[in-house]
Structures are given as C-alpha cells and as structure tokens.
Write a structure and sequence with these properties.
binds FE2/S2 (inorganic) cluster; alpha+beta; binds flavin-adenine dinucleotide; Rieske_2Fe-2S_sf; single chain; FAD-dep_OxRdtase; disulfide bond; Rieske_Fe-S_prot_C; nine-stranded mixed beta sheet; Rieske Iron-sulfur Protein; iron; 9 helices; 27% helix; six-stranded mixed beta sheet
Length: 497
C-alpha cells in the first residue's frame, strides 16, 4: 500500500555518515527535517539519521491538512486541561502553521488554501460534538462559524468552519526541506537505524551505519526509540487508512466528521478525491482489510464516479492527556530531546515541536510552550493512562495465551495469511506472501509483545506499543529497533526463514 505522494518518487540519495557533529536529529519526517533545518540555519553542524528513507513513515502517508481546526480536539483538550494550557497549544499550532505556509510560499512548495470543516453526519452524538467544538474553538479565539449547508454529496446536519487553512503534498514539502538543509551544510543519512545511545559527557548515537558523537540528540521518530522516558507506556498507537481517487469534481473543502466512524475528505491536484478514516489501535482489530473495504464502500455510495488510484495506511501516537510530549527527555542530561504524541495533527504540531526544541537547543524558549511544559495531569488524564496500560496488560495476557494454546498447524498458511503459534516451546509467527512462506519470532523485539497479522499490509503488528515488521521480520516503525529473528520450523518441509 503506497501513498499518492510517495508512489511516483524514487527514494532520495543518502549522504555519508560522519563520526562527529553538533546535533544528531533522528528521523526524516516533518518534525526531524524542520528541526534540522532550524538548527543548521543557526550555524550548527547537523546530521539527520533516518532508518528507512525520507518520509517513509507517517509524514509520507499523511492526509497533510495544515489546519488549526482539528476535528474535535479543542473540546477534548479543554476537558483535560486548563484554558491557559490549551491556549498554549493553539498558539504553538498557529505558529507551526504560519511557519509552514510561509516556508511553502518562499520555496515554491505547492499548496492549496481551503476551509477546514468539522461536520456532524447525524443529529445525534456527532452534532453534540461538533457544536461543542464550535464553542471551544470560539472560546480559544479562533474565527470559526457554523453552517448547515455544505456542498458535499453525503449526509450532514451541520459543521464548524474555519476558513483559510491549507493542504499540500507532504513529499513536496520534505523534498524542499532536504534540499534547503543540504544547502545549509546539513546531511541526511538514510538507511541508518538508530539502535542505541551511549553517554558520558556527550552522547554517542549508535546506528546501523556507524556511530556519531554529538552535543545534542533530537528523537523525531514518531514514537521515541530510546526507552529512557518510558514514553511508550503513555502513548497509544492508532492506525488509519486513506484512499485516493480520480474524480472530476471533488469538494474543495478539508472535512472531518465529528464522532465515529471518522471520515476525512480533501481534494488534491488531478483533480483527485482523498478519503481517510477507520482508525483502530495498532494490531488490535479483526481484519485491517475490512477497514479499507468500509472506506471503499462509503466512497462508492457518495462519489459513484470516483476511480480508485491509491490505497494506504499509517499510524500516529496519542498521549494519555492528548498533548504532544516535546522537550528534554528524562535521564538525557539535557542532551536528548523528544517530540511525539501529535495524534494525527502533526503538520502543525511537528513544526511547533521543531520550533520549541530548536529554540531550547539554541538557548531560548517559545513563550507559548511554557504552560504546556508545566502542565499537571488532571484525573481524566490519569484515568486515560491507567486505561492505556490496562489494555497493554490485557494484550500481554491474550497474546501469551494465543501462543501457549495454539501449536502451529502443519503446512504453510494460505497466500496472504499469517498465524501465530508455538513450534515446540518457541513462539513463531508464520506467513505466506507472494508465494514465499516465512517464519519469524512471534515476540516483538521492543518488549516481547506477541505480534498480530495485518491482512491489509501483510505485516506483523505489535498490539502493545505499535511496532510493525515486514513478513520477513524487518522493522518498519514503532519503538522497536531490531528485526524479528528468523525461526526455522522443522516439522514442515516448506516453512523456513
Ligand atoms: C492516516 C494519517 C493521516 C494524517 N493526516 C494528517 C493531517 O491531515 N494533518 C495533520 O496535521 N496531521 C496528519 N497526520 C499526522 C501527521 O502526519 C504526523 O503527526 C506527522 O507526519 C508525524 O511526523 P514525524 O516527523 O513526527 O514522524 P514520521 O513522519 O513518522 O517520521 C519519523 C521518522 O523517524 C524514522 N525512524 C524511526 N525510528 C528510527 C530509528 N530507530 N532510527 C532512525 N530513524 C528512525 C522513521 O523511519 C520516520 O521516517 C496524519 C496521520 C495519519 C496516520
Ligand atoms: S511495541 Fe512494545 S512490545 Fe511491541
């Protein structure tokens, strides 16, 4: 499943790794590249280490709406924090959006200005949520308005509108950032997965293309890959799906539904229609393919002229209190910084995080970030944290039971299928993809969760903290930094690594 944005492009070339620099930024998505550029512009020697290639994970698979109206986020955040903290969030996102759109103007990155809409599909809960968002956004000073007449062919009873937001092709943006970073002396080293970090006075970042000593490390890896802050225990990973269609007259609006099931709609040059939604916790659903099919059915009902061209999927991380975690990592001695928890609004939050972290490395502070850094969890957030960990504990128990109770059946799984079981006492994940049968360890290399088969993408997904692996065990994303090792299954002739 490849996104509309990544399908036509070859991966960018890699620079050579270096042994020393001022700053190592880990991750070449929007957060890492904007941070690296800001630091390089300030005269620092910056190296970006990227495990795969530029935009390979969430940014290159985003729907890339650059918006200050973010579904029903403000009403949710106001339930969990004071107005001062939420106002800091809005100010950071405003600065992130404005920085990004200025950057697009100055560097000829194509983008389209569109109204953002949070709409209610029915007069029940969706309407209550949309109205609550209107009130919350107004309270926070956003110039929102209410409409009951949207030019769209699907059911709606009303929606909140914020004019003059924007949308873009995120790979166009990343291309421009890489070129600009290199012009400022920065390097982008791809195929370099960070596997650990040593630290005496200064950090030494170990990666699959060597080791780099530096002064500051920024982990812009979606979810942090070094477990120093235990962030994985405060985050939940949510996967969702997107489809692109050729369509003669897509609505020129950026819409998202209030309440479930989520439907996210925008247009793109072509003209094309994009439809997204159907989110679920990573590794915790009966069939990923079922989610894609439901998006297809919805589109066929409301846009019968749409001809599908691309289908893809991606995940993002939500913190227990809904706010991103941005800043110095505990036990990093002030040298390690982290940015995560954008909850599917990282086009503005990723830039805000980059502004905040680079300011702090350069000796300053963004004024809007102070109340966010100082926030104290309210009972609702503590309850959410307990919920995240209860679900993880349940995942551990059910995963272990699945392995213990199910010896692997003889023979290989059917084409496109995967199964988890034990071969003797060894937990094995076995699959068949493109005629090739393969067996790997069923235990996630992060903290040993039992992986689940993803039937839409033919991957092994960990339900605990969202690590994902190819059928042959290579790490794709999430907090795991090592591949699933091969596990030869000797009793069947056609199974092996
Ligand atoms: C389906 C979907 C739709 C979305 N739509 C929108 C939207 O419309 N608007 C919006 O604002 N936001 C949206 N988002 C959210 C937004 O896309 C993300 O928040 C944002 O792209 C995150 O960027 P990032 O740079 O932090 O992470 P990423 O883009 O994931 O970049 C992290 C990089 O780190 C690399 N990495 C990971 N581990 C290592 C390691 N050990 N060593 C080296 N490199 C490593 C990865 O390979 C990756 O390239 C959406 C998210 C999803 C899932
Ligand atoms: S992602 Fe943490 S155990 Fe798998």
């Amino acid at each position: 499943m490849t996104s509309l944005w990544r399908a036509p492009r070859a991966p960018m070339t890699s620079d050579d790794p270096v042994e020393r620099c001022d700053d190592v930024v880990v991750g070449a998505g929007i957060t890492g590249l904007v941070t690296a550029l800001l630091l390089a512009r300030a005269g620092r020697e910056v190296v970006v280490l990227e495990a795969r290639d530029v935009g390979a994970v969430t940014t290159g698979h985003s729907t890339a709406k650059v918006s200050l109206l973010q579904g029903t986020r403000y009403s949710q955040l106001l339930r969990r924090q004071s107005e001062e903290v939420v106002a800091g969030y809005v100010a950071g996102n405003r600065e992130g959006r404005d920085w990004l759109l200025r950057y697009c103007e100055e560097h000829d990155v194509p983008h389209q200005v569109r109204p953002a809409v949070t709409y209610a599909a029915d007069p029940g809960r969706g309407l209550d949520l949309a109205r609550a968002e209107l009130e919350a956004a107004s309270r926070l000073g956003l110039p929102v308005r209410w409409t009951e007449d949207l030019p769209v062919p699907f059911e709606h009873v009303g929606g909140v509108v914020l004019d003059d937001q924007a949308q873009l092709d995120p790979m166009d943006l990343l291309d421009a950032l890489v070129e600009d970073l290199r012009a400022h002396g920065g390097r982008v080293v791809t195929g370099a997965r960070v596997t650990g970090m040593g630290q005496s006075l200064r950090p030494v970042v170990r990666h699959t293309r060597g080791a780099t000593r530096c002064d500051q490390v920024v982990l812009a890896t979606g979810t942090p890959v070094l477990d120093r802050g235990g962030y994985f225990a405060k985050l939940s990973a949510s996967r969702s799906y997107a489809l692109a269609f050729d369509h003669p007259t897509p609505p020129e609006l950026m819409l998202i539904s209030a309440g479930g099931p989520t439907r996210s709609v925008r247009d793109a040059p072509g003209p094309r229609l994009l439809v997204g939604g159907e989110s679920h916790p990573v590794g915790r659903t009966r069939s990923e393919r079922g989610h894609v099919d439901r998006l297809r059915e919805w589109t066929a009902t409301h846009f019968p002229d749409a001809v599908e061209t691309h289908a893809w999927s991606a995940q993002d991380y939500r913190s227990h209190d809904g706010f991103p975690f941005v800043g110095a990592m505990p036990r990093g001695l002030g040298h390690v910084h982290v940015a995560t928890g954008f909850d599917k609004w990282g086009m503005t939050n990723g830039v805000a995080a980059a502004l905040d972290i680079s300011a702090s490395i350069l000796g300053g502070q963004m004024p809007w970030s102070r109340p966010i850094h100082r926030r104290i969890s309210r009972p609702q957030a503590v309850a959410a944290l307990v919920g995240i960990n209860a679900r993880v504990a349940m995942g551990i128990v059910t995963g272990a039971a699945e392995v213990v109770l199910h010896p692997l059946r003889p023979g290989s799984p059917a084409e496109g299928a995967g199964e988890v079981g034990r071969a003797g006492a060894v937990p094995v994940a076995r699959s068949t993809v493109d005629g090739r049968s393969c067996a790997v360890s069923a235990l996630c290399t992060h903290l040993g969760g039992v992986v689940e088969w993803n039937d839409a993408e033919s991957t092994w997904d960990c339900p605990l903290h969202g690590s994902r692996f190819t059928a042959t065990g290579e790490v794709l994303e999430g907090p795991a930094a090592r591949d699933l090792p091969p596990r030869p299954v000797r009793r069947t002739r056609d199974v092996g690594p």
